[in-house]
Design a protein that fits this description.
The structure is a single chain. The strands form three sheets. The chain has a three-stranded antiparallel β-sheet with strand order 3-4-5, with helices on both faces. A two-stranded antiparallel sheet has the order 1-2. It is elongated, with a radius of gyration of 33 Å. The protein contains seven helices and seven strands; from the N terminus they run αββαβββαββαααα. The N and C termini lie far apart (74 Å). By secondary structure, the chain is α+β, with helices and mostly antiparallel strands. It has two domains: 128 residues, Enolase-like, domain 1; 77 residues, no CATH class.
Length: 260
C-alpha cells in the first residue's frame, strides 16, 4: 500500500474518541489518550510521524495583584506560538512522504514549559483533525437530539420530580427561613453586641444567605453572647473582691470583636 492508503486504514481504525479527562468546567480528550488510540495502528501500517519546528514566537505579559495582606505580587505569563511541519513517512518506502504545515500554542507561568505545552497541543490537534476523529458524541456538551417539533427528544420520557406530593422544578431552594430571621432579629437586640457587629450581621443578611449559612451566624452570635455573659459574671465577682482594675475592665468590655 502507498502512504495514502495506509493513512486511510489508520483513520478507519479510530473513528471516535470519548472525552474522559475532566477539566475545570468541561471534559476533554488528552494527548496521551489520542496517541494511545492511534499508535497501534500506526505501527501496524509502518508509518512514522516526524514533527519539525519552523518558527517560534514568545509573548510575555506581567500582571500585578494585591493579596489579602496588601502585598503586591507580580505574575508573568508566557504565551508560546509555534509554526510547525508534520511529516508522514512510509517506513516500507522512506522516500514516500507527506508534509503538513501546522500551528501550536501554549501558555505557562514559569516559562520553561511553554514550548512543551505548545508541542503537545499541536501534536494532539493535528492527529485529531488529520484523521477526522470525532470527540463530541455522547458527551455532556453534545447538543441534545431534537424531534420533528424541535423539542428535546429526551424530555418526553422524563417524569417531573416529586416532593411531598407536590411537583417541583428540581431546583433546590434553601434560603433562610422566617423562623431563622426572627431568631437573628432577637439576637441583634442583645446589648452585649456592639453596633459594628450588628452592622456586620445586617451585611450578611443583605447577601440572602442560605439556611446553612444562617445557622452558622446564629451559632456564632449565641456563642459570642454566652462568652460575654460569662466574662461579665467573672468581672463582677472580681470587682466585688476588689482585685480587678476597673479602667481595664471597661476597656475589655467595650472592645469590638469581628463577628462573621
Amino acid at each position: 500500500m502507498n502512504i495514502y492508503q495506509k493513512l486511510i486504514e489508520v483513520r478507519k481504525a479510530v473513528p471516535y474518541l470519548k472525552k474522559n479527562n475532566k477539566g475545570y468546567q468541561y471534559k476533554y480528550v488528552s494527548s496521551s489518550q489520542t496517541l494511545e488510540a492511534l499508535r497501534g495502528e500506526l505501527d501496524k501500517q509502518g508509518l512514522l510521524l516526524v514533527p519539525k519546528v519552523l518558527d517560534t514566537n514568545v509573548t510575555t505579559e506581567t500582571v500585578e495583584n494585591t493579596d489579602k495582606y496588601g502585598n503586591i505580587k507580580k505574575t508573568t505569563t508566557y504565551f508560546t506560538e509555534l509554526k510547525m511541519e508534520f511529516i508522514w513517512i512510509n517506513a516500507e518506502n522512506p522516500e514516500e512522504k507527506l508534509s503538513c504545515l501546522w500551528y501550536g500554542q501554549g501558555v505557562d507561568i514559569a516559562g520553561e514549559k511553554g514550548v512543551g505545552k505548545a508541542l503537545t497541543y499541536a501534536e494532539k490537534y493535528f492527529l485529531l483533525k488529520f484523521f477526522n476523529i470525532a470527540t463530541d458524541k455522547d458527551d455532556p456538551d453534545n447538543p441534545p437530539k431534537k424531534d420533528n417539533n424541535g423539542q428535546d427528544a429526551g424530555q418526553k420520557n422524563r417524569k417531573p420530580l416529586q416532593s411531598k406530593g407536590k411537583q417541583t422544578t428540581g431546583i433546590k431552594t434553601n434560603k433562610a427561613t422566617q423562623d431563622q430571621l426572627k431568631i437573628i432579629k432577637n439576637l441583634k437586640n442583645d446589648k452585649k453586641l456592639s453596633k459594628a457587629e450588628v452592622k456586620l450581621i445586617d451585611a450578611e443578611l443583605d447577601k440572602n444567605p442560605t439556611e446553612e449559612r444562617i445557622d452558622q451566624i446564629i451559632k456564632r452570635i449565641e456563642e459570642l453572647i454566652k462568652s460575654r455573659t460569662s466574662a461579665k459574671k467573672e468581672t463582677d465577682v472580681s470587682r466585688n473582691k476588689g482585685g480587678v482594675d476597673n479602667e481595664k475592665s471597661k476597656r475589655e468590655e467595650t472592645k469590638e470583636k469581628v463577628l462573621v
